[in-house]
Design goal:
single chain; mainly alpha; 83% helix; 0% strand
């Protein structure tokens, strides 16, 4: 039951932990299935790109260079897809979690995949808005200390657009509309939003570290999934 009043940070974090306890296995299962598909696609992309480059210049050195050149963008693409899929899955889980309905990993994945591109767009636009000015200043050659005054602006924008990926996934909005929706939701509640996102991130980091320590390789596979899904 969701109270018809603004929720406090403790209630929000408690609700997230309850949802993770009830649906965490299916959520992580859906994410791992999606990541497996993305990994297979990434390997095919690397193989095709390296093979095409090797045909153009068939030497051992060229083969190695082509493999590296294909590996870097393909790995970045894989990480971006996993990041966006995690946000889309978290958004897809909201309706059944609030209503107490049963879900399956495949059902979550089917609901999340169509919204993954929009969630990725919202993620990237929010990141660009928050970190873009500082990144441009560093690229222009300014020393890090000169860029330091931009840190409060980056933090303010990061929190302002923190809800954009969830809005893109849950409300079926485009990336720009999701940023506007996040800004509207956070306006007047910036400190409360910060008070939820920071502890959520800290809990996710601590839990992910514990998983890696306790379960070894399996924990290392599950930890990124937890880091990506719990704050959302």
């Amino acid at each position: 039951m969701v109270p018809l009043r603004p929720l406090g940070p403790g209630e929000i974090l408690g609700g997230a932990l309850t949802a993770l306890r009830r649906y965490g296995g299916r959520l992580l299962g859906a994410l791992l299935l999606g990541q497996l598909g993305a990994l297979l696609g990434t390997l095919l992309l690397i193989s095709a790109a390296a093979g095409a480059a090797a045909l153009a210049s068939p030497t051992r050195t060229a083969d190695s260079r082509a493999f590296v050149h294909a590996l870097v963008p393909a790995t970045a693409l894989f990480l971006l897809v996993g990041w966006a899929l995690a946000g889309a899955l978290a958004a897809a889980l909201l309706r059944p979690a609030v209503l107490g309905r049963r879900v399956t990993a495949l059902g979550l994945l089917r609901a999340a995949l169509p919204r993954t591109p929009a969630v990725l767009g919202a993620h990237l636009l929010g990141l660009l808005a928050a970190a873009g000015p500082a990144g441009a200043a560093l690229a222009a050659g300014l020393p890090p200390l000169a860029v330091l005054p931009l840190a409060p602006v980056a933090l303010w924008l990061g929190v302002l657009f923190a809800l954009a990926p969830t809005a893109a996934g849950y409300e079926a909005l485009g990336p720009v509309a999701a940023l506007r929706r996040s800004a509207g939701l956070v306006r007047g509640a910036w400190w409360r939003t910060l008070g939820v996102t920071v502890p959520a991130g800290a809990l996710a980091v601590g839990a992910a570290y514990a998983l890696q320590q306790w379960f070894g390789i399996l924990g290392a596979l599950l930890a990124p999934a937890l880091l990506l899904t719990f704050p959302s």
